[in-house]
Automatic annotation (TrEMBL):
Coiled coil: none annotated. Pfam families: VWA. It comes from the Eukaryota. Residues 1-147, 164-333 form the VWFA domain. This is Vitrin. InterPro entries: ECM_Assembly_Org (IPR050525), VWF_A (IPR002035), vWFA_dom_sf (IPR036465). Gene3D superfamilies: von Willebrand factor, type A domain.
Length: 347
């Protein structure tokens, strides 16, 4: 743990790697001198996000990031934008407000409901109002209890580390060996953007023709290097095109084993019209809470791509005229996955 003091500007008093035992840390805390100045909480949150929780400053991969923000009265700048960016980076923001504004003082606020705009969730778990400095000691135990409840530190979950992603890959004869390698490169490029581990994002893959084959299951490869190698090793199958059956197979083989706290995402990549019905299988996976993306190439049928994709289609369905242009959609897909994640309600 460490400490930032803020007034007009934030400053690191103790970095995350300064002390490794509580006795030394406590002694360092006693020596901190008060800065004075304004109460620019927004600036402090921005600093926490951009500079404090960095690898160089001692941030560790597996440990949840928690910021306990003590505010006397109310902030003198806006917190909403800075805290949104911090939350999206996976920082769990707790607010301890001491002697918050009474009804007469609320007209002085730069931003009304500043606590709700700042904290990780607006359900009361992340905010501790304290009515006097003397009462602050009573907030210690409840706060420690909450910070230690790691299952509820939901802001540690970001759009890059909280998914089960199934790639459903068309291996039909019309694709061809060279184009199939291009598809695998696309799958690898999308995968590379996520944080991969058993507790972060997991990736599975199915290849299909008339039949289906599980290439690898969720959690079979739990580090990025192994996973990217496994994608590279997928052998081209060649055959017909039964996309509907492949979607059902992915639901049975992959999503049935999904973790309850993960978002289920399916990315179907096909280059032609399916020989079977895609509408009913797609509807079934949508009802199971799977977010479906469809990527159509060359002769793929627009109506089928739209049936497969989660609504709105324009956010989840993409078409390219040739395989070599697939790479252009990687940033768009990542952006849409993150935008959808970050627009979830915060209560």
């Amino acid at each position: 743990m460490g400490i930032i003091q803020y007034g007009d500007d934030p400053v690191t008093e103790i970095s995350l790697k300064s002390y490794s035992n509580s006795r030394e840390l406590k002694s360092a805390v006693d020596k901190i001198m008060q800065k004075g100045g304004l109460s620019n909480v927004g600036k402090a949150l921005s600093y926490i996000n951009k500079q404090y929780f960095s690898d160089a400053n001692g941030n560790r991969g597996g440990a949840p990031n928690v910021a306990v923000v003590l505010v006397d009265g109310w902030p003198t700048d806006k917190v909403e934008e800075a805290s949104r960016l911090a939350r999206e980076s996976g920082i769990n923001i707790f607010f301890v407000t001491i002697e918050g504004p009474d009804d007469n003082e609320k007209q002085n606020l730069v931003e009304v409901n500043f606590v709700d705009k700042a904290v990780c969730r607006t359900n009361g778990f992340y905010s501790l109002p304290v009515n006097s400095w003397f009462a602050l000691r009573k907030a210690v135990q409840p706060l420690v209890k909450r910070v230690c409840d790691t299952d509820r530190l939901v802001c540690s979950k970001t759009c890059l580390n909280a998914n089960d992603i199934a790639f459903v890959i068309d291996g039909s004869s019309s694709v061809g060996t060279g184009n199939f390698r291009t598809v695998l490169q696309f799958v690898a490029n999308v995968t590379r953007e996520f944080e991969i581990s058993d507790t972060d994002t997991r990736v599975g893959a199915v290849q299909y023709t008339y039949e289906q084959r599980l290439e690898f299951a969720f959690g079979q490869y739990n580090n990025k290097g192994e996973l990217l190698n496994a994608i590279k090793r997928i052998n081209y199958w060649s055959g017909g095109t039964s996309t509907g059956a492949a979607i059902t197979y992915a639901a049975e083989q992959l999503f049935s084993k999904s973790k309850p706290n993960k978002r289920k995402i399916m990315i179907v990549i096909t280059d032609g019209r399916s020989y079977d019905d895609v509408r009913a299988p797609a509807l079934a996976v949508h009802r199971q809470g799977v977010i479906a993306y469809s990527i159509g190439i060359a002769w793929a049928a627009q109506d089928e791509l739209e049936y497969i994709a989660t609504d709105p289609d324009k956010e989840h369905s993409f078409f390219v005229d040739e395989f070599d242009n697939l790479y252009k959609f990687v940033p768009k897909i990542i952006h849409n996955i993150c935008q959808e994640f970050n627009s979830q309600p915060r209560n």
